[in-house]
Amino acid sequence: MRFRVAYIATSSLSSSTISNVPPLPKLEPPHQTNTLTDIDTNHPSTASATPAFASSFDQDTIFNEWCNQMGIHCPHAAVRTGPESVAGRGVFATSNVKEGEVVISIPYELALTQDNAARFFPELEEELLHRRRRIANASGVTAMENEKVDSFVERIWNRLVRRKTNSPSTNANTEDFNPDDFWQAELTAYALAALDSDHPWGPWISQWRRDDPLQTLVDRQRDNVSIEGEGRARPGPGDEEVAIRESVDKFHEMAPQIPKYKINAAVHIRLHQLDQYIQNYQIAISSSDRIIPTSKSMYTTLISRAIGLSNTITACLPMHDMINHSNEPNLGFTFCDGNFEMVALRDIGAGEEFFLNYMDLGRAEEKEDGKSVRVAEWDEDKATWLLAQWGIPSSPDNKEEQVVVGLEKLESLPIL
Fold first, then answer.
1. Cβ(154)–Cβ(299) under 8 Å?
2. Per the CB 3.0–4.6 Å rule, which of 67, 264, 334, 359 could disulfide with 9?
């Protein structure tokens, strides 16, 4: 599951909707940030670490300057680190904003999508397509090999949320696959490739962070992988189960009203997906295989920042991915004239933090004052995924009504 765009002012995006995407601006990164090594892959990754040379203030300044250089229009917004943010870092209003005003505008070409990234890394795209074919050909074997895991974890979870497993058909042909079925692994590879080069995305990706029990668990597993010349040994099954239980316990402390068995199922699904990811992309089967950048840490971080723009396009958007979640968002999200726009849903004062709603938990209702509101009906299963996907706790106690649209200028924004 991923964050689905909540408000779109135009028709859904598709691969054919946007053509002739202009190149990214050329610029020198303010600092060389791709010097940290992710030890589970030997590829540079800064997904879970801050360069020692830069303070939080420096990082905010670097990112805000990068946004300006890259053509992100945000005269009323800036990233800020500090205790005033609900998550320690967020996007704040630098001046008063009127309801209906466009707060942030992001050009489509800045979106990290499979199509956009493939233009910059054609050799990597070729190898990723090769892996797609291999996964398609081996899908029947993989399904049999994973039958016990699926039946124990994913099938239980699928019954809980009353949905079918979304996996490729065993007779599927790669050409019949939706490329978006592979977005997690492929966007991770492109993100790592951007960090390992002078690509303009690098300074943005180097600032990606995730700080929750799942990320801690994944990084702990990574840090215990044996390295040549060092004495660390791979943890045994018992150690891993202890670490998993600790992770589930910490999640449960964050959201005590979600049953532990559901949190446990969600964590095991994520770990199973990570194992499949490494099996499919890190291991070279033949001598002709090129190396694909892989990192469990980056994979886990990236999926917490990605949004579904349509049924066929998933993306990470700079600046958008710095905005935190709230059940009472003050920003809506639209796509207009080649730009992603975040629009004020009410008057917002200088110094206020901006928020989006990562998951739709309710239904829209019309009130007497003409405002459309969304009544949040807390759903235990959705809340579990909100916790596992983004590390965000929720409970029936925070099911306040959420203002969705409060101005005629934003009339009838359809929900995907």
1. no
2. 334
Residues in the chain: 416
Contact between residue 342 and residue 333 where contact means Cβ atoms under 8 Å apart: yes
Amino acid at 96: N
Q: Per residue in 290-344, pLDDT tens?
A: 789 999 999 999 999 998 888 788 999 999 999 998 888 999 999 988 899 999 9
Counting as low any pLDDT under 70, the low residues of the chain are 1-57, 139-177, 222-238, 284-289, 360-377, 398-416
pTM of the full predicted structure?
A: 0.76
Rg (CA), the chain: 21
pLDDT for 395 equals: 80
248: its two tokens: 């589930």
> Residue 338: left (phi > 0), alpha (psi -120 to 50), or beta?
left
Q: Residue 76: which of 354, 325, 407, 410 has the closest Cα?
A: 354
pLDDT at residue 164, as a whole number: 39
- The pLDDT score that the predictor gives to residue 185 is 95
CA distance 282 to 325: 33
Cα-based distances in Å from 344 to 4, 111, 251, 261, 329: 19, 21, 32, 39, 9
d(CA 196, CA 353): 33
Q: What is the pLDDT of residue 220?
A: 85
List the structure tokens of 88.
């320690």
pLDDT of residue 70: 95
Residue 104: helix, strand or coil by DSSP? strand
CA atoms within 13 A on the CB side of 384: 20
Cα angle 119, 320, 26; round to 5: 40
- Contacts for 324 with CB less than 8 Å, ≥ 6 apart: 85, 86, 87, 90, 91, 353, 354, 355, 356
Which among 304, 294, 318, 313 is positioned nearest to 113, based on CA atoms? 313
Identity at 29, one-letter amino acid code: P
Looking at residue 374, what is its pLDDT?
A: 55
Mapped onto helix, strand or coil, the DSSP state of residue 61 is helix
- Taking a C-beta distance cutoff of 8 angstroms, is the pair 190, 295 a contact? no
Nearest C-alpha neighbor of 379 from the set 331, 310, 327: 327
Going by C-alpha positions, the residue among 64, 30, 61, 321 that lies closest to residue 202 is 30
